[in-house]
């Protein structure tokens, strides 16, 4: 074995293994660049790891419909008015919660997972912190991830940024792989929301933090926007009520669940929970 291959094998051996991955195909908090079949993925950073169930179930059809929708949306995703109304406020809220979480812990490197990362805008900003040793974005849409991979490749922290194609309800990571997990404005697309929350809890280390942001539907404005407008546009979605989401988080094993409403024009619900 050449010296280069030995060094590569040594680096891989130090990474945690995902459930169901073949030996040596490491996916912890820093996925390798190759796709699962060994070929370099577009942009050198998109890793395909979603393991689909047998086709035909309604939930699978809903997921594929969402994938198709977001694949089509990816080209203009970063230029939509939703950035000002929803996405940028969500990003700022995540940054604030991360800063608050860091204040309460001993300074140390940490690992971030952004579920439903889209084109990777949040992780691109978080990568400015050198203490963030690994930042992984997971999305069901390959085209969104192409955008994220292209964005990551231009950043000084590109070696710490990864784009993974996968399913939020079956995360391809080992238990306790991450310290901080974000999920912004994609939770309403998940057919099995309790399952997704259990997966979020599983991949977080003890003391880790979850920040989950989605549409707030508990007042008249939120109901009209999310339960009527968004549902007409995106069809198979579900925005959980605040009390229901709080109960689901506790059922998944999260502690110290706090909730607050964010924004005025498009009300959002910010859920923060400790692992």
Which helices and strands, and how do they pair?
Layout: H1 3-13, E1 46-48, H2 58-73, H3 82-103, E2 110-115, H4 121-126, E3 132-139, H5 142-153, E4 161-165, E5 178-184, H6 193-203, E6 204-215, H7 220-234, H8 242-251, E7 255-262, E8 268-274
Parallel strand pairs: 1-4, 2-3, 2-5, 3-4, 5-6
Antiparallel strand pairs: 6-8, 7-8
Polypeptide structure, described:
With 275 residues, the chain is of the alpha/beta class. The chain has a single domain, classed as Rossmann fold, CATH 3.40.50.150. It is built from eight helices and eight strands; from the N terminus they run H-E-H-H-E-H-E-H-E-E-H-E-H-H-E-E. Strands 1-4-3-2-5-6-8-7 form an eight-stranded mixed β-sheet, sandwiched between helices. The termini are far apart. The model is unreliable at 1-29, 31-45 and 48-56 (pLDDT under 50).
């Amino acid at each position: 074995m050449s010296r280069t291959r030995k060094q590569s094998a040594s680096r891989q051996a130090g990474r945690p293994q995902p459930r169901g991955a073949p030996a040596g195909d490491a996916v912890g908090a820093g996925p390798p660049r190759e796709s699962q079949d060994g070929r370099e993925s577009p942009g050198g950073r998109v890793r395909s790891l979603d393991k689909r169930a047998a086709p035909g179930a309604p939930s699978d059809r809903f997921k594929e419909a969402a994938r198709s929708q977001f694949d089509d949306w990816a080209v203009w995703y970063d230029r939509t008015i939703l950035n000002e109304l929803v996405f940028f406020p969500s990003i700022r809220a995540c940054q604030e919660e991360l800063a608050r979480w860091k204040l309460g812990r001993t300074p140390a490197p940490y690992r971030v997972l952004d579920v439903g990362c889209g084109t990777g805008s949040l992780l691109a900003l978080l990568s400015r912190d050198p203490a963030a040793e690994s930042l992984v974005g997971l999305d069901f849409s390959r085209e969104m991830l192409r955008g994220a991979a292209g964005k990551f490749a231009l950043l000084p922290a590109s070696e710490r940024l990864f784009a993974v194609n996968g399913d939020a309800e079956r995360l391809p990571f080992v238990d306790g792989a991450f310290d901080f997990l974000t999920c912004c404005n994609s939770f309403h697309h998940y057919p099995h929301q309790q399952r997704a929350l259990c997966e979020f809890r599983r991949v977080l280390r003890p003391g880790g933090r979850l920040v989950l942001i989605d549409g707030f539907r508990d007042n008249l404005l939120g109901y009209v926007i999310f339960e009527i407008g968004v549902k007409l546009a995106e069809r198979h979605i579900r925005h959980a009520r605040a009390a229901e989401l709080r109960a689901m988080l506790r059922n998944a094993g999260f502690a110290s669940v706090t909730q607050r409403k964010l924004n005025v024009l498009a009300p959002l619900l910010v859920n923060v929970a400790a692992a």
